[in-house]
Structures are given as C-alpha cells and as structure tokens.
Amino acid sequence: MFGIFLYFWRTEIKMKKLLYLTLIVCTILVSAQTFIPAYSTRVNLVSQSNINSGLQDYVSFGVKNTGSTNNTNALNWLKGKYASFGYTTAQVVEDPFSFNTTNSKNLVVTKTGTLYPNIFVLVTAHFDTINGVGANDNGSGTNAILEIARILKDVPTEYSIKFIHFSGEEQGLYGSQHFVNSVVNATVPKMNIRLVFNLDQVGGMAGQTHNTIICEQDMSNNPTTNNAASAVITQELKNCVLLYSTLQTNTTVAPAYSSDYVPFQNNNEIITGFYEGNGDSNPYPHTSNDIIPNMDPVYLFNVTKAALGAVQHFAVASSTLSVAENGNGDQASGWTVYPNPAKDFIEIKTKDSRAKEVSFEMVDLSGKSVLRTQNLTKINVSGLPTGVYMGKLNTEGQSSSKKIMITR
Ligand SMILES: [Zn+2]
Prior knowledge:
408 residues; Aminopeptidase; Immunoglobulin-like; 4-stranded antiparallel sheet; 25% strand; binds zinc ion
C-alpha cells in the first residue's frame, strides 16, 4: 500500500513539475507578445493624410538615382521632416559613401533608449529609386518610417532606435553595405544591433485586394548562425501584425533577399523585413510606372500601423501613455477613461467628484451621438462598432473631449 502511495505521490510531483514547466513556457511566450493598449493608441495616430502628402513630396523629386541632384533633394527633404518632428541636428546624421565614381549619403536618425542606450533596433528603408519616381519602391517604406519616427519622437523606448534611410540600394545595396563596413563594424566596440527591420516595397498595387503583408526571414546559408534568431523575431513580427493591424501575414516562410538587410545578415546580424503581399507579381517597381496612382496608399497606411506596433515591441516602448499622449490633457481636464482602448465596458474617473450635473456622451467620427449616460462607473459600450470615438464629459456647463477607441 505504501508502495502504491509512493507511486502516486511521485507521479503527482512529476505532474506538478510538468504543469509548472508548461505554465512557465506559456507565460514566457505570452508575456512577450500580449496586446498593449498604449501601443495600439499610438498605432492609431498613423495618419493616412500624412502618408499621402509624404508620397506626393517623395515623387515630386523625380527619379532619385543614387548620386543625382534629385536624390540629394530627397535627402534634404527627409532632414527637414525630422526637424519638423522635433529631432535635433545631433540626432539626424548624414552618412556619406561612394562607389565607383558615385557619391551619395544615407541618413541615420538616432533615438536613445532609456535602459539599453548602446543596443540598437535598426528600422531601415532605402530612398533612392531607379528608372522611375519610386512611389512604391521605395516611397512606401520611406514614408512608413517617417510616420513611425514622428509618432515615437517623445515615446520612451528601452532600446535605442536608428531610423535609417539608405541610398545606393538599387545599384547593389551600396549604402547599407557601407554602413555595415564603415559604421557598424568600425564603431569601437562594434555597434550592438538587437535586430534590423527593413521595409522595402510595401505599397501594393491599385485595384488589388491587399490583406497580407509578407514577413521575411533570414534563410541564407552564409552564415546560418543567425537564422534561428531571425525566425524568432520574424514570428514576433507576425504576431505584431495581427495584434496591431487588420492585416494577415504569410503562412509559409518567406526568405529575405535583395534588399538592405542582406549586408547585415552577411555580418551575422539578426534581420527581418516587410514586403508587400503580391510583390513578386507587381510589374511597376523599377519602371516609370511606379507612380502613386498605381499603388495602394490605404494598404501602406495599414502596413505602417503594423510596423509601428512591431517597432514598439522590438524597442520595448513605454506601455503607459504620457500625459501629453493621453492628451488632450487628461490631467488638465481632470478626467480619464479606463480602459482605453476598450472592449465592452469603460469607466470614467473624474478628479473632482463633487462636480454636479455630470453626463457623458460618445460621438462617432461622423459626428453622430451614439451613447449618452449619467452613470460613469460602468458604461456598456459592447453595442458600439469597433473604431475611434470622441468621448465628451459635460460638467456644470463645461465640456471636455478625448479620443476613445473600441477594439474587439
Ligand atoms: Zn526597393
């Protein structure tokens, strides 16, 4: 009988160990990639009109062949954009290089991390074009990075970020190869790169349905030592797409090739990348027909959202919103919405509970009032479609509004 008891006892311990192990593994997997509301709030700041006007600016410089005046004009436009976002001249650095008889410059914009200032997440896209104005290849990646950099300007991230606009890509990855040789490897100690996230040709084709973004991973034979790590972060990238955008991802493995991540992967860095869902059948890149009317700016808008979710994840952005972000002056206005984004219920917390005649209203983007209540502690929003609303709190003749997002 004792033997039987001992048997069960041991079995129970084994089961418990297995259970704990399973729990630990699950916690690690899930904790790395849970939905973070603050990330989503920032993702919702991605602006279609900024993307559209950025594309217009970008194509207005014409064919941006490496070494051309048009290319330099585009570089200066990028510098101006970063200045307008509030990046300092110390953060925005030109990186000149030459090949054959051609001289050009990359633009490297650094945002310093709070916890790991010397470990860098590189977010990269080339801005040079060939044969055409390059609305998609690579006005798309260029403008996605601009939006991400704009929105993250004042957001603390644990890791440092370098937003890099490469030139010389189309003739043979000259700008990125130079950066790896003369900056990454020439820095003492060598620049510590957490990962490289490259965006090239993510603008889609007009008139096609785009619901997928391809997440590319390192499948190269030389070296193979960095491939497993690329697979891990590419899976994390896919998770971010699902968490922070309406897009789907590729179900089969997509090898990374022929873009600026290649010199990094050759250098044994960890790489991943975005490439449009039907890119291989897109006839426009590298032709004079790579123009805005032939691409899909709404797709680029969605890709940018996915990319911003991923950059926040990779650089470990703050998971709480600052006062300015919460904005519309949460502190000043004296009330907060919790949670935001919300699913089924929200709660309004007011600083001054003595305020009389309090009522709360939600207005959709067309301006229609969709909810009105005087109960602020448990407001049922489960009947509202997902989307962005303005919440209006009316207190003693005063009214104050803030953005509320419903997600499910
Ligand atoms: Zn390209």
